[in-house]
Amino acid sequence: MRADKHPQLDCDIKVATDGNSIRLSFPKRHTPLWETLDGKSLKGKPKYLYLTKYGFKADNPADRKRAAQIAIAIESDLDHPEWDKLFDLTLAKYGLGGGKYAKIADVLQLPGTTQLEPEITVGECWERYLEWKVTTVEETTFKVMFNGFTNVIFGKKWDNNLKTYSQLETHLSTVKLSDKALIIEEFDKIKVCRKPYLMNELSRAFDFCKSKEAINATTENPFLAGKFSKPTVTTQDKYADKVVNGELISWHEVQDEKALEEDRRAFTKIERDTIIKAFYENENSTNRYLAPLIEFYFLTGCRTSEAVALNWGDIDFNRGTIRFSKSIGTCTNKIKETKTGEVRIFYFKNDSRLREILLEIKSASKSDLVFPSKKGKYIKYASLSNAWAGNSIKKMLADGTMKTYHFGAVVSQLVEDGKLETYLSLYHTRHTYITLTAHANKHNTDSLLYIATSCGNSVDVILRHYLCRTENPDLISV
Q1: Quick count: other Cβ atoms within 10 Å of Cβ 457?
Q2: Are 307 and 433 a contacting pair, CB within 8 Å?
Q3: Coil, helix or strand for 365?
Q4: Start-to-end Cα distance in the chain
Q5: What is the CA radius of gyration of the chain?
Q6: From the centroid of its chain, how far is CA 403?
Q7: Model pTM score
């Protein structure tokens, strides 16, 4: 055994290394307690408590530092006049729960001692955190991100064939927060989209529970990035299929609104008109029904969820304005704020195509919504996506057979027919409007300010990311 070369604060419980192990060496005044706990005499030798079983390694500076802190905490409790009330026989209070002393404590109770609750599990920590978190984030965000994380933590894996969740035998939720090694092992097994976000939220959950004194004071946060032996996102994770709203899709098909906002490619004016015409003349009645909404996107540059939430009270034909003050949650289908939380006013002229479309819709409308579904409810994003990009789903019929339903893909078909140079998502209707309008007014600073304000953007973004792009000769006007 070699003496530990690393400095330790003044404490009679010494931290030493023995090979690759870290151990605590207790002074003789604590010998009677350990002889009682161990059920045998130490024969005048000091009590050694090896920490290897708890995941401590001698070559890890953080583990040595933590061992020193544990030594101080134990000595402070044992040397206190009311030590019998403070000292935890299970050692869980000191982040060493789960060892043999946890079992001894079930049958051994020293006079006057109070048993402390063992360390909480990852699942318990997460559930306490969610009780608070649900009050601080949008319902859509909570449903999509945090419910998904909950399924991962509790080992619920989506089965795309059965369209239901199966339960894994082992999962992160049952691991105690003090068991750093097992947490790392279980976390490395997880395959999920946005794995770094999951780790960050678990770290925040730990900090939240510790602030509420639900976690032992000596337990360190096991979810800090430096604690993990593998990267939070491996190349296998990065290119693996992702589960989005219960559907297993390829990694390159995942649509993240932030990424879409930053991908500012646009259709040309000719391509824009080609898409609009294709919707109006499509043989599919649903696609034709959506044509005015598709044209509205191209003529206003609003976000997809903002147009679906519009009602006629938001349209003022006398002033020629559209008020964008709300949006629809893509999975909750409930009203919420706009992405930026701001209310925007969009102006249109009396002789504009936009005014003409709105008047045509209003004259035939039987709903308070400007763009209702055929059933008079909010149009779901999945319906728009099916019409734009196409989709196919499998459903089990009453007789037990599987049937595949195909949905028409207007834009995907135009690309396949060579009428569009490349495929861009529905969100790029927004970028197309901003690009076309910005280029048509690039020498008019006031116009650029109007475009930025009406679209929930900034002049700086338009100058940097729209006008700085290579000009296309088709980008002449709107």
Answers
A1: 21
A2: no
A3: coil
A4: 81
A5: 31
A6: 33
A7: 0.50
